[in-house]
């Protein structure tokens, strides 16, 4: 069992790496059980795969865990269920699932009875390395992804890499897109670990994934501790996301988040080349790694620039109608750039087309 502690001014907590039925997990849930009803929020497929985990604590609520259902309407359904089950201000929500379940459970807990506690139990690679850590919660609006939400930190994150064994191959790739982002933008050591262990990553070597997940969480903890509410350095975690969110939207979410981030990394890399921010050999290393991992690297012909630009301008990171885009400067380093000429953005995206 390993732990990472994320130290914040008001809501510090541990990320605990162990097995879901371990005494440590049970002890952690008991620690934050204040005597109210516990509501485990999950999805039907996880209920079938892990019935003992899904029913382990309190009552069970099943979300429709898709991007299309990541909505205020689904949040209202969850909250009405919480009332029916007898939840109150001392209640505890447990998010047992992937990133959508975690985001929605966290948001629901932030507004139920003006805020109650919740615990994250991520079951996908993407959720383990990213969305379960840092307290970002929210839902989509018709206008864009995650435009309604709150910063609401969990009381703990309980991570068991054995859940990865039941994930389809595409879900592993979904997580790998986000993991490559950490390496390219924030950690040269992590990038080199990925470069040197491609076969282990493709063959789901759980010992390797334990290290990779831990290292990603360690990087994210360091960033969040410096900037909990994304006023500065935390924006660097969005490398690939401005383009990526547009890819998700124009594909009607056929492209998963991690796949979209991977394509977004290539777009950001192309733009960084045009701005002379990094070297071609760094771009080539990133591109080569992504190909070896089976990640998508091209924009489809039918995804029009004007449509994508419109979506990007509605991104949360836009200020006064100007895009702020995170761009790499070398392997393991990145910056936020503003006032980028639109023609360079267009050229970069066209260079990434099929």
Descriptive report:
This protein is α/β, with parallel strands linked by helices. It folds into 2 domains: 165 residues, Rossmann fold, CATH 3.40.50; 182 residues, Up-down Bundle (Dehydroquinate synthase-like, alpha domain), CATH 1.20.1090.10. Helix content is 46%, strand content 18%. The chain has 15 helices and 11 strands. The strands form 4 sheets. It has a 4-stranded parallel beta sheet. The protein has a 3-stranded mixed beta sheet with strand order 1-2-9, with helices on both faces. Strand 7 and strand 8 form a beta hairpin. The longest helix is centred in the middle third of the chain and has 21 residues. The model has no long low-confidence stretch (mean pLDDT 94).
């Amino acid at each position: 069992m390993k732990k990472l502690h994320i130290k914040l001014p008001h809501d510090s907590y541990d990320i605990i790496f162990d097995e879901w039925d371990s005494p440590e997990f049970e002890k952690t849930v008991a620690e934050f059980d204040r005597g109210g009803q516990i509501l485990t929020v999950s999805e039907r497929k996880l209920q079938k795969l892990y019935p003992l985990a899904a029913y382990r604590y309190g009552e069970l609520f099943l979300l429709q865990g898709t991007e299309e259902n990541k909505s205020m309407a689904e949040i209202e359904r969850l909250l009405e269920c919480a009332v029916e089950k007898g939840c109150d201000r001392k209640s505890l929500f447990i998010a047992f699932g992937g990133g959508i379940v975690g985001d929605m459970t966290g948001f629901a807990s932030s507004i139920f009875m003006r805020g109650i506690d919740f615990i994250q139990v991520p079951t996908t690679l993407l959720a383990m390395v990213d969305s379960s850590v840092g307290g970002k919660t929210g839902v989509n609006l018709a206008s864009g992804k995650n435009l309604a939400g709150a910063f609401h930190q969990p009381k703990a994150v309980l991570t068991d890499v054995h859940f990865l064994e039941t994930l389809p191959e595409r879900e592993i790739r979904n997580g790998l897109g986000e993991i490559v982002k950490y390496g390219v933008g924030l950690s040269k050591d992590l990038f080199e670990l990925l470069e040197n262990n491609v076969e282990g990553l493709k063959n789901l070597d759980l010992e390797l994934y334990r290290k990779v997940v831990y290292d990603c969480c360690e990087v994210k903890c360091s960033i969040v501790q410096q900037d909990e509410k994304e006023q500065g350095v935390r924006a660097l975690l969005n490398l690939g996301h401005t383009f990526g969110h547009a890819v998700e939207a124009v594909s009607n979410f056929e492209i998963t988040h991690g796949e979209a981030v991977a394509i977004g990394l290539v777009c950001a890399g192309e733009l960084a080349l045009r701005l002379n921010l990094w070297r071609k050999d760094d771009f080539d290393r990133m591109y080569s790694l992504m190909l070896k991992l089976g990640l998508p690297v091209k924009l489809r012909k039918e995804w029009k620039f004007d449509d994508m630009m419109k979506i990007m301008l509605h991104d949360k990171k836009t200020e006064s109608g100007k895009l702020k885009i995170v761009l790499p400067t070398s392997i393991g380093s990145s910056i936020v750039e503003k006032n980028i000429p639109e023609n360079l953005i267009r050229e970069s995206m066209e260079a990434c087309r099929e």
